[in-house]
Amino acid sequence: MNYLISIIIPILNEADNISKLLNHVLKNASKQNISEIIFVDGGSTDGSQDIIQSFNSLNNFEIILIKSEKGRAKQMNFGAKHARGNLLYFLHADSFPPKNFDSLIINQVKKNNLAGCFKMKFNSNHLWLKIAGWFTQFNWKSCRGGDQSLFISTILFDKIGRFNEAFIIYEDNEFISKLYENKQFVVIQEWLTTSARRFTSYGIYKLQYHYLVIHIKKWLGASPQMLNNYYQKHVNVKNR
């Protein structure tokens, strides 16, 4: 069976990252494995769309820009709806996957590992962030998050039920939890590098504390709206 990956990148005012990310993806993947790169814009006002469109004439990869309602879950589902590949790869605009990430994903799918991520490190030398990144190599649900990216077969994505759009935050974790329930998740042992911008702008320990509270609230049964209310009150990180 031939596999083609649709890369889906939800964005909102990511003009500072788009060129760097696209250049990285084009350099570290093979055209033969990539169906298209889909940017799903939730209403950017910083020129992100113009940057994406300028890349279309510069390479052989198909780069698509579509517009969606704001909200990561809504944007990722909308991107998946437009994807032509039989594998979906959800990627944050400030996360940079390892060299040959496309081949690494396809190799896992051929082993019947139909969903998973890469282990992750932050672009920071802060000790706490190094420790947090180190733990992502383990295949534990508690060590997962959207920054690590997510690959999944389209068949499994439809079976799981897509991202729950009731979640304004925590949508990645909620979806990944369902994958673990189905015993279908693998951590590829290559490093993806993600930005520490949210931590450095807000305060590393302060933000980590609020993330921990959100995890606990979810574990205790908090609704999506309750989680979002807490997030908006205590965090409200720019461009979420």
Task: Provide a brief overview of the structure.
The protein has helices at 15-28, 48-55, 72-82, 101-110, 127-134, 154-160, 171-181, 197-202, 204-219, 224-234; strands at 5-11, 34-41, 63-67, 87-90, 95-96, 115-122, 150-153, 186-194. Helix 1 runs parallel beside helix 2 (48-55) and helix 9 packs antiparallel against helix 10 (224-234). It is an alpha/beta fold.
Give a verbal description of the structure.
Strands 3-2-1-4-7-6-8-5 form an eight-stranded mixed β-sheet, sandwiched between helices. Helix content is 42%, strand content 20%. The chain is built from ten helices and eight strands. The protein has a single domain, classed as Alpha-Beta Complex (Spore Coat Polysaccharide Biosynthesis Protein SpsA, Chain A). By secondary structure, it is an alpha/beta fold. It starts with a strand and ends in a 6-residue tail after the last helix.
Distance between the termini: 37 Å
The sequence of SSEs as H and E is EHEHEHEEHEHEHHEHHH
Helix/sheet category:
alpha/beta
**Radius of gyration based on Cα positions:** 17 Å
Based on the coordinates given, report the CATH architecture: Alpha-Beta Complex
Mean pLDDT, nearest integer?
94
CATH classification class:
Alpha Beta
Please render the helix and strand layout as text:
Elements: E1 5-11, H1 15-28, E2 34-41, H2 48-55, E3 63-67, H3 72-82, E4 87-90, E5 95-96, H4 101-110, E6 115-122, H5 127-134, E7 150-153, H6 154-160, H7 171-181, E8 186-194, H8 197-202, H9 204-219, H10 224-234
Parallel strand pairs: 1-2, 1-4, 2-3, 6-8
Antiparallel strand pairs: 4-7, 5-8, 6-7
Helix pairs in contact: 1-2, 9-10
